[in-house]
Design a protein that fits this description.
The protein is built from three helices and five strands. With 138 residues, the protein is an alpha+beta fold. The chain has a five-stranded antiparallel beta sheet, with helices on one face.
């Protein structure tokens, strides 16, 4: 398998999500990524994109989201950055999974799943951008 890479730059608009998902799915297929890691990376992209658009730009300003996906040998890497307000999703405590659904606080489950599924994850604030890097073993 040759190394493959997908680079996307998108406006911070939820209307982009369907086309984004289609592009990621096509890349996974072309890169020969097995279904489980493909699903896990897609979940991470969806979660980060939704969170960036919903919470990163509270003033409604236009922004840019950059997504890079690469397959290198038996590894799948995701680089996700946005120019929204500073936010480290990995700093949030894991959600309370005990108790009934009605008792649990809303939010945090998607990032918790991403953190659990990824073999490596990191956040940094670089040049005014939120940067998340994840690695998934194939």
């Amino acid at each position: 398998m040759t190394d493959m890479r997908l680079d996307l730059r998108l406006p911070n608009n939820l209307g982009e999500l369907d086309a984004l998902s289609t592009r990621i799915e096509g890349f996974m297929e072309d890169a020969g990524v097995p279904p489980t890691p493909a699903y896990r990376l897609q979940l991470a992209v969806d979660e980060f994109f939704n969170n960036a658009v919903d919470y990163g730009y509270p003033d409604g300003r236009a922004g840019e989201i950059v997504i890079e996906v690469s397959r290198t040998g038996d590894r799948l890497d995701l680089f996700f950055s946005d120019d929204g307000d500073p936010f480290d999703p990995f700093a949030a405590p894991p959600p309370d999974l005990d108790g009934t659904l009605e008792e649990r606080r809303i939010g945090g489950l998607g990032v918790h799943l991403v953190r659990t599924f990824a073999d490596h994850f990191a956040y940094a604030r670089e040049n005014g951008r939120n940067v998340k890097r994840l690695t998934f073993a194939l």
